[in-house]
Amino acid sequence: MARIQRGRHTHVPAPDGEVTVFLIGMRVNRWWRVDAWLPTFAAMGPMIAELSRDPDSGFLGVRYLLGPGGPTLIQYWRSPEDLYRYASDRDARHRPAWAAFNRRARRAPGAVGVWHETYRAAAAETLYVDMPRTGLARALGSEPASGHTQTAAQRLARRGA
After folding, report:
1. Which among 118, 110, 27, 112 has a CA at the least distance from the CA of 67?
2. Domain total of the chain
């Protein structure tokens, strides 16, 4: 079990003041088409492992969520350019996984859906109380939320908003 940080904490600002948040998920539309959705589901783990081993990739961390339609990953990146560089890298796992998804989607149209959203966050405000490091705090580090980071407004103003 992750170690709980007692008290109030906030994330450490990114070195250049900006972070990219990338949401990616899949939705199983036809549960009986395991041949279509299981490989899509299984492809993400090796990509995250590959990114985690490469400190120069720009990948800062990930958080996993599971909802009624399927999984969602919240990824933290240094920049959208780092994210796009990985997505288009012919030697990385993403390109072949994306090509394989498209081949399966042509064989089983509508069986599984994928989606993503990319946000460039110039400022972010966070608060974690008696929590293990999670989200931005896990990706960037954490510090006590006190003094000049006591309130949400102070934390957001400190980060350039």
Report:
1. 27
2. 2
